[in-house]
């Protein structure tokens, strides 16, 4: 049952941290600063409550959404016409068999040893949501990090140095995932690309991440084409099956 994911010590720690920051910001900092009964205090209390509530909602979506599993009937198409480079095609075909599950897996799919299954477009396993971050919940995860960063900065401004470390940590994580999204990468693919670039340089070639379609297309592939729904963690109607992805042609060019 997906609700059982909430029964973990890291998730309890997240709830406690959220509660501590919320209480400290409202009933200590804002109360001492302008007073909760004043118009300014009420405004700040409502603004921070909105950010905290939105963070909590996004957190629940991350925890309870299945990141994506491989259909039992899936068989790779080795004649994929989008892959023009023969060597790249052979490498991808070789990597499509999961040695642990003994089944085929689509491109960008990886096996999670914690979840004990293959996950579509797996980014990483996050212990703080007791779930993998994958195809179906990556948008919610990104929004969670974004809103939580804004909330922590808001709290830092009112509370001072007590939550500065949290703001720096979340801000760094947000910048990392903005970079990944802008390049249409997962965390796993980033480290794979580091090795691929090194190998390409050794052979006098240059490497380009095959799923990098340009910043705008990369962003809309995660957040969706409708900008009004970019900050809605449950607005994922633009997502397809998580098995096939558009790729950029000519992934390798002579330097």
UniProtKB/TrEMBL annotation:
Please list every transmembrane segment annotated in the UniProt record, as residue ranges: 7-30, 42-64, 136-154, 160-180
Q: Which InterPro entries match?
A: Palmitoyltrfase_DHHC, PFA4/ZDH16/20/ERF2-like
- Asked whether the UniProt record includes Membrane among its keywords, one would answer yes
Instruction: Name the keywords, alphabetized.
Output: Acyltransferase, Membrane, Transferase, Transmembrane, Transmembrane helix
Q: Where in the cell is it found?
A: Endomembrane system
Predominant cellular place of this UniProt entry's protein: membrane
Free-text comment about domains: The DHHC domain is required for palmitoyltransferase activity.
What EC number(s) does this enzyme carry?
A: 2.3.1.225
Q: What is the lineage of its organism?
A: Eukaryota, Viridiplantae, Streptophyta, Embryophyta, Tracheophyta
- Pfam families cross-referenced by the UniProt entry: DHHC
Q: Does the keyword Transferase apply?
A: yes
Top EC category: transferase
Q: Which reaction does it catalyse?
A: L-cysteinyl-[protein] + hexadecanoyl-CoA = S-hexadecanoyl-L-cysteinyl-[protein] + CoA
Q: What is this protein called?
A: S-acyltransferase
- Which segments constitute the Palmitoyltransferase DHHC domain? 94-163
Q: How does it sit in the membrane?
A: Multi-pass membrane protein
Family note = Belongs to the DHHC palmitoyltransferase family.
Task: Name the encoding gene, please.
Answer: LOC115754259
């Amino acid at each position: 049952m997906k609700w059982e994911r909430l029964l973990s010590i890291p998730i309890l720690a997240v709830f406690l941290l959220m509660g501590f920051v919320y209480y400290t910001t409202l009933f200590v900092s804002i109360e001492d600063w302008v007073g909760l009964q004043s118009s300014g205090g009420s405004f700040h209390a409502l603004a921070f409550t909105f950010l905290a509530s939105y963070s909590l909602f996004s957190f629940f979506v991350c925890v309870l959404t299945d990141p994506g599993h491989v259909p039992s009937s899936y068989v790779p198409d080795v004649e994929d016409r989008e892959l023009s480079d023969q060597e790249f095609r052979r490498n991808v075909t070789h990597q499509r068999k999961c040695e642990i599950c003994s089944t085929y897996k689509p491109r960008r799919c990886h096996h999670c040893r914690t979840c004990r299954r293959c996950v579509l477009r797996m980014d990483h396993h996050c212990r703080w949501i007791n779930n993998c971050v994958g195809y179906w919940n990556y948008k919610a995860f990104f929004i969670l990090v974004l809103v939580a960063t804004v909330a922590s900065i808001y709290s830092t401004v009112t509370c001072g140095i007590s939550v500065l470390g949290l703001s720096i940590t979340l801000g760094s994580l947000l910048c990392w995932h903005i970079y990944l999204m802008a390049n249409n990468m997962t965390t796993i693919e980033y480290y794979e690309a580091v090795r691929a670039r090194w190998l390409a340089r050794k052979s006098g070639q240059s490497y380009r991440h095959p799923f990098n379609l340009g910043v705008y297309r990369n962003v809309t592939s995660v957040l969706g084409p409708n900008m009004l729904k970019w900050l809605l963690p449950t607005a994922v109607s633009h997502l397809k099956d998580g098995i096939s992805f558009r790729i950029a042609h000519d992934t390798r060019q002579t330097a």
